[in-house]
């Protein structure tokens, strides 16, 4: 009991947490509670949440506070994102979320070791900081952001290292969508093992 009591007092820098609809990947369309942990050292030039890079300046919340807030909503799907969430030890947070009955998904670049109990790993590797090898085994979905036509070949390199069951998604870089999306459409028609992931929350103008 002492252990659980200690665990729930551990803290994380939380940039924001919100109940919304998962806009990307396999769980697109599902209600989910997003926990955006601050801190990222990957530095993607087109990152859509650069305010998350600095760990400092964000609310520091205990596991207890994070999970109690999450439990206020009826959905029991939690998405841990960031920033780069794998920069944190996720064991205390995920233990408490599991105890509260959550299915836990993570959004990660794979640049740092995975910790804790995660039910679904969305692996989105970046050119700006190479992923760790462990993610080719652990990924449930590969989601490659396409910014330039050369990124298709780069996506295939990652796909070739994955297990057979991993789902494959190509997601247009939001700012270049008008130019890139037609290329992705053609690519997926020619290479049907891939699917398109759109950031549908941005089209719906929700968080
Ligand atoms: C903001 S990141 C946070 C999680 C983790 N750092 C990562 O990159 O996977 C969440 C998801 O958004 C994607 N993403 C970030 N900026 C984007 C953009 N401008 N257009 C499309 N997808 C983007 C990332 O590739 C990732 O799949
Ligand atoms: N609705 C919604 N879906 C998302 N899927 C991944 C997101 C992320 O920023 O990690 C995200 C996000 O920020 N909002
Ligand atoms: S790894 Fe994720 S949070 Fe970090 S800069 Fe890239 S897209 Fe943004
Ligand atoms: Mg986002």
TrEMBL record:
Pathway: Purine metabolism; 7-cyano-7-deazaguanine biosynthesis. Substrate binds at residues 21-23, 36, 81, 207. This is 7-carboxy-7-deazaguanine synthase. Belongs to the radical SAM superfamily. 7-carboxy-7-deazaguanine synthase family. S-adenosyl-L-methionine binds at residues 46-48, 83, 124-126. GO terms for biological process: tRNA queuosine(34) biosynthetic process. Residues 27-207 form the Radical SAM core domain. PANTHER family: 7-CARBOXY-7-DEAZAGUANINE SYNTHASE (PTHR42836:SF1). Homodimer. It catalyses: 6-carboxy-5,6,7,8-tetrahydropterin + H(+) = 7-carboxy-7-carbaguanine + NH4(+). Its EC number is 4.3.99.3. GO terms for molecular function: 4 iron, 4 sulfur cluster binding; carbon-nitrogen lyase activity; magnesium ion binding; S-adenosyl-L-methionine binding. It comes from Sediminitomix flava. InterPro entries: 7-CO-7-deazaguanine_synth-like, Aldolase_TIM, rSAM, rSAM_sf. [4Fe-4S] cluster binds at residues 40, 44, 47. Binds 1 S-adenosyl-L-methionine per subunit. Binds 1 [4Fe-4S] cluster. The cluster is coordinated with 3 cysteines and an exchangeable S-adenosyl-L-methionine. Its cofactor is Mg(2+); S-adenosyl-L-methionine; [4Fe-4S] cluster. Catalyzes the complex heterocyclic radical-mediated conversion of 6-carboxy-5,6,7,8-tetrahydropterin (CPH4) to 7-carboxy-7-deazaguanine (CDG), a step common to the biosynthetic pathways of all 7-deazapurine-containing compounds. Keywords: 4Fe-4S, Iron, Iron-sulfur, Lyase, Magnesium, Metal-binding, Queuosine biosynthesis, S-adenosyl-L-methionine. The gene is queE.
């Amino acid at each position: 009991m002492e252990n659980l009591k200690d665990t729930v007092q551990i803290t994380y820098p939380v940039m924001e947490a919100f109940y919304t609809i998962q806009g990307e990947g396999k769980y697109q369309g599902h209600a989910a509670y997003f926990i955006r942990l601050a801190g990222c050292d990957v530095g993607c030039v087109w990152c859509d949440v650069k305010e998350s890079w600095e760990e400092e300046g964000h609310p520091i919340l205990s596991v207890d506070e994070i999970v109690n807030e999450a439990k206020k909503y009826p959905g029991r799907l939690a998405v841990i994102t960031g920033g780069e969430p794998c920069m944190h030890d996720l064991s205390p947070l995920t233990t408490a979320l599991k105890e509260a009955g959550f299915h836990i998904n993570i959004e990660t670049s794979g640049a740092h070791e995975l910790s804790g109990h995660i039910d679904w790993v969305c692996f989105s590797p970046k050119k700006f900081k190479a992923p760790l090898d462990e993610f080719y085994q652990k990924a449930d979905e590969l989601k490659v952001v396409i910014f330039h036509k050369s990124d298709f070949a780069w996506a295939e390199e990652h796909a070739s290292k994955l297990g057979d069951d991993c789902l494959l998604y190509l997601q247009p870089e939001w700012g270049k969508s008008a130019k890139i999306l037609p290329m992705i459409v053609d690519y997926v028609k020619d290479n049907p093992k891939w699917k398109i992931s759109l950031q549908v929350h941005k089209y719906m103008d929700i968080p």
